[in-house]
Amino acid sequence: MAIDPSETETVAFTVEDGVAWVKFNRPDKRNSMSPRLNRQMMRVLDDLEFRDDIGVLVLTGEGSAWTAGMDLQEYFRETEAQGLKGTRGAQRESYGWWARLRWFQKPTIAMVNGWCFGGGYGPLFACDLAFAAEEANFGLSEINWGILPGGGAAKVAVELTSFRRAMYHALTGESVDGKTAAEWGLVNEAVPLARLKARVSQVAQILLQKNPVALKATKDAIRRVREMTYDNAQDYLIRAQEAANSYDNEGRKDGIKQFIDDKAYKPGLGAYDRSKSQPTKPAR
Ligand code: ACO
Question: Which of 40, 108, 117, 210 is the least buried, fewest Cβ under 10 Å from its Cβ?
């Protein structure tokens, strides 16, 4: 069945040099997340995830916003009018694509070009790395309109920044700029908007040089071990590496060979040359 264009146009994407540039595409509504956008984003992630020509996904926004959070009209008011079924359905669609993005097969980068509010903290945390424009604005604005930072936003704040900062941020609803967001740990780095895409492209190119099986194993490991004891983490990591070996047992051997035997590179200073390596099976 054909999908309504008012749904497909909510997300735009291009693929260039191994990078999928995915955009929230409702600039007139400051890229707020409506149920239509949430459904379309899941379709786009589905389409892109296992493509061989994509090694990194960047999530950014068209216009002045990254995303102004949930669409107060279409996500809250209109779905609540349908009762609990409408509310829960809308939650499943948004939380669904954020979870899909958290465990995405390829490394992901949030490129926060502008406003980032409330529900936007879900996809912000879902992305493995985050770079912001210094001019961007981050806020848990929920308190300003009378709710708590739900949909994971409170959890994201305490995961990424300190207790005191998270509490102040959530209770006052004051926003912070990209520079402060970087100081607080909400993003890796802030650069002037004019340089944001160049910086993110540079990071994407670094990731594209790495072994893709190792990238997926690493991103999952960093997320998983947060909640584990030291012993459990050690055990998980042994098993995760052994599972990764079942998809690519040659890469790491080539990595050792190119250093020890060929003296072709130094792992402390950069990645081995995968073009000289056996082709790897795609990891699942
Ligand atoms: N939900 C629905 N519509 C929105 C949202 C949103 N979250 N954000 C912006 N819009 C709409 C506006 O209603 C307006 O629509 P209209 O042109 O039909 O009147 C349009 O987008 C443009 O918005 P402006 O407010 O005119 O844009 P401006 O650039 O001046 O301000 C800002 C941008 C600061 C982001 C402002 O729109 C805003 O405060 N938005 C709400 C942010 C927010 O609190 N989001 C909810 C977080 S809580 C949560 O996600 C659970």
Answer: 210
Considering the domain architecture, whether residues 204 and 250 belong to the same structural domain is answered as no
Proportion of the chain in helix, strand, coil states, percent, rounded to 5: 50, 15, 35
Q: Is the CB of 149 under 6 A from ligand 1?
A: no
Number of domain units in the chain: 2
DSSP, residue by residue, 85-128: HHHHHHHHHHHHHHHHHHT-SS-EEEEE-SEEEGGGHHHHHHSS
Structure tokens at 111: 């490129």
Q: Which three-class secondary structure state does DSSP give residue 142?
A: helix
| CA 67 to ligand 1 centroid distance, Å | 9
Indicate if ligand 1 lies below 6 Å from the C-beta of 99: no
Asked whether the beta carbons of 61 and 22 are under 8 A apart, the reply is: no
Indicate whether residue 74 lines ligand 1 (CB < 6 A). Answer: no
Q: What does each of the 284 residues of the chain score in pLDDT, given as a tens digit?
A: 788 899 999 999 999 999 999 999 999 999 999 999 999 999 999 999 999 999 999 999 999 999 999 999 999 999 999 999 999 999 999 999 999 999 999 999 999 999 999 999 999 999 999 999 999 999 999 999 999 999 999 999 999 999 999 999 999 999 999 999 999 999 999 999 999 999 999 999 999 999 999 999 999 999 999 999 999 999 999 999 999 999 988 898 999 999 999 999 999 999 999 988 765 555 44
Per-residue b/e over 67-100, b at no fewer than 16 CB within 10 Å? bbbbbeebbeeebeeeeeeeeeebbebbeebbeb
> Domain check: are 150 and 229 in the same one?
no
Clarify whether residues 204 and 224 are in a common domain: no
